[in-house]
Amino acid sequence: MKPAAVGAVGISRRGALQAGGLALAFTWVGGSKAFAAISPRQQPADAAAALVDGNPAFAPNAFIRIDADGGVRLVMPMAEMGQAIYTGSAMLLAEELGVELDQVRVEHSPPNEALYGMPLLGGQITGGSTSTRGTYGVLREAGAVARTLLVGAAAAQWKVDPAGCTVARGVVSHAPSGQQLGFGALAGAAAKLPMPEKVTLKEPKDFKLIGQPLRRVDSAGKVDGSTQFGIDVRLPGMKVATVRACPTLGGVLASVDDKAARAIPGVVDVLRIKDAVAVVGEHFWAAKRGLDALKVQWTPGQNAALTTQQLRASLANALAKDKAIVGKETGKRPEGTLVQATYDLPMLAHATMEPLNTTVHVRPDQCEIWVGTQVPTRCVSAAAKIAGVAEDKVVLHNQYLGGGFGRRLETDSVEQAVAFAKQVPYPLKVVWTREEDIRHDIVRPMYHDDISAVVDGDGQILWFGDRIAGGTVLGRWAPAFMGKDGMDSDLIECVAEPCYDLPNLKVEWVRHDMPAGLNVGWWRGVGPTHNLFVMESFIDELAHRAKKDPVAYRRAMLKKNPRTLAVLDLAAGKIGWGQGALAARVGRGVAVGDAFGSRVCAIVEAEVTPQGEVRMRRAVVALDCGIAVNTGSIEAQIQGGLLFGLSAALFSEITLREGAIEQSNFHDYRMLRINEAPPVEVHTVKSGEAPGGLGEVGTAIAAPALANAIFAATGVRLRALPVNRALLAQDKEALKKKIADAGHGARSAA
Q1: For the segment 400-420, what is each residue's pLDDT rounded down to a tens digit?
Q2: How far is CA 505 from the centre of its chain?
Q3: Which structural domains are found in the chain, ordered by start?
């Protein structure tokens, strides 16, 4: 059999599932139907869906299909966006089913809350580093259920004890009699057997796949170009559009002069909605040239004068004057020395490698969508409203995502594409340019923290406090899930339940949302990305104030948290903390945290030049993520996440001028370049604990480790991001000369 591949699920099966009335409304957007978490056991639609595909009706659960040739298909409840979840999930299922990874074909699941709703997120959602945590037991049990039924079918046919049968590479064998049958030959009979009441899962000592550094199942397709991302969709008769929305956030379209655009060869049409215009072409280049030729007038609306400075000032004012919601309070604030600091974090764009895109074909009685999304059922619900059809008339084909980072938890680009596509009779692929992708991102909120501690004469923390001001994502995205008194749990994650022994603490939040039109969304690492930077930077401040080694200072507060203490010790040992002197303006920074069910420590070694440039020399990450599924993916995810977080800390900030996002592409929204990336070592603690998250852990811990390294190198404490190199310059005149020389060099080259 060919190596595992990923293909789009056929319309027939999707239609069968949706026609069966199983596409439940997403509870977080006000659906009244009950949410059913994914189950390893059979549900009513499984067998019918398998039959529609023309295969034996062996569907012991929502995830497994056995083809007539014995091939195994895994119907994935999560979306693949580079986090290697297709591989990890296939490993879980194959381990218990009795097949090898190369025998598993992975395909996207249809939108269906009842069959594919993630228990940790309350819906069919991929995010929050929950995929492995939410499916580790479910997919293993699903594989074991299928194996038990297949073995039972073989044993019944041979009239032998099932206990005497073995399974390997999709073949059931009975050694005493020498009989063998493949899964394909057994599927029909297995489908008629009752569900087993209990199944036996493997002990970790017997794992053959779990815990191994296996190659990704999607690597071959990405290398040869056969893997289809959303932007790759091609349909008969399809046209391509690109769009421009009002630059001022919340503004609307006033008028369009499209005469010049329509004269460009390949331009098909010019479409309008309330706040945007699209040029349709036979291909993208024609559409892009047409868009550039438009003469557009906008009505900017209430945000016409809005600036970043205004937003920052209003956030600080709210923190100082508005009433806070207490998220966590234990003990009382004692007498002692009060230490305070203020931290600021900027708005951030997601800047995924694949810009937003959606292909839509609206017919009188159906809306068909091809898109890479983290929330397929939310897309179905949103599209149905705009297209004016029932939800069971929306067919969504989920594609590979060229990066998500939280951006594809939103449905705005799908809604826009449907609004344009309903104006034309042909399939329409709407592709955002990079500039549109950044200027109309749903950005990570800015935050303002007043953080404080009462310390004793030895510098030990007697009380810890954090007062946070910022807008809520959860309050917009899923308001029903807000906590007591309207608390957003994401806003205080990792600080309300710190990894340290801090018996006396108070964490509170002042809700201060952004003006209408400036929507904020989750960004990779969500709450921990904000809170770990603030907390670990401040812990570092307290350590240096007490004239104590930052590792030793943390170690003393982790005696009741052995898992986190272990990763701290491992990282410190691997980098050689405290061993040997470092060169001038070279420093090491440490940060630890308990995030997404994992324990992590990062240590960054950085050099700061006299001109204030930061050069990262080395990074070491120690991780306890519980039971490791694919050790190769663990390393890749931590490396990628850390570099993503370091990139944001060094360069990234979204700013507003006259109500519009100023950044537009990678020249002014910088990313870490390959020559700037440090070597990243990843070391794991062997653990038998439940699996923790990976995809966001490295991102969340990156910024504080870097900032603490910069302090160690320069003595400059950075309480705001991104890194301001002017604060780090040893010689301000040297910095000015370097900038001037760089400009002269650019002019000379030109």
Answers
A1: 999 999 999 999 999 999 999
A2: 30
A3: 6-224 (3.30.365.10), 230-302+356-431 (3.30.365.10), 447-733 (3.30.365.10)
